Amino acid sequence: MPQIELSTAEGFPQGPQTHFKNSALSESIKTDLFSLCSPSLLESIVTMSQLTTSRLSLAPYQADEAALMHRLTGDLRVFFWLDTPMSLEETQAILDIKRAMFAEKKLGWWTVRETETGDFVGQACLQILPETGEPEIGYHFVPEFQNKGYATEAAAKLLDHGFCTLNLPRIVAVILPDNAPSQAVMKKLGLKYEKDIMKANLLHNYFALERPDYLAQPDYLAQKA
User: Fold this and answer.
1) Which domain does 141 fall in, by range?
2) pLDDT tens, residue by residue, 25-40
């Protein structure tokens, strides 16, 4: 149940160019890498950004976890918009970008694991949507771990992290029109459809939620009572 195309945050310094063989990937991601901050800073950010729910543990990707990410990027059932599965090398380049994003803006991609088993089940993101410059929420899950409610659970935790820890004023999501399950997740979390936008040369439905509206939701008020 893939939800988002690959994208990089705007406003980061550019580094050495990385060339990808995937034409669809070239459409959906800017392939310039930028310099990473010091390892000690990145590790402190990772520690501060670890999140938990009743069933899941979320943590920013470590530098050596490209193989985990490749379970998603290399599977066309998940990254279905690519022409061919992404290579491990391409995935490592994406991982470097996402880790640098944490150092710059405390936004990026989290691994998602089952708390009970420790199994890697997918990834969730809170990153910058290049088309609008706004924080975007999304996720991808390993096929055998789909349809378990993990997408809603992980997205809800990142939504709370974005609004209550990072104090973001607004969070958006972009979803393909025929992706009814993900549209249902966003509506359940309180994001409302606003318009259609183009992303990676594909039409997407654009959903959004403002921080005051999130804080006024009954579910949020109940959990804080």
Assistant:
1) 23-224
2) 544 444 333 333 444 4
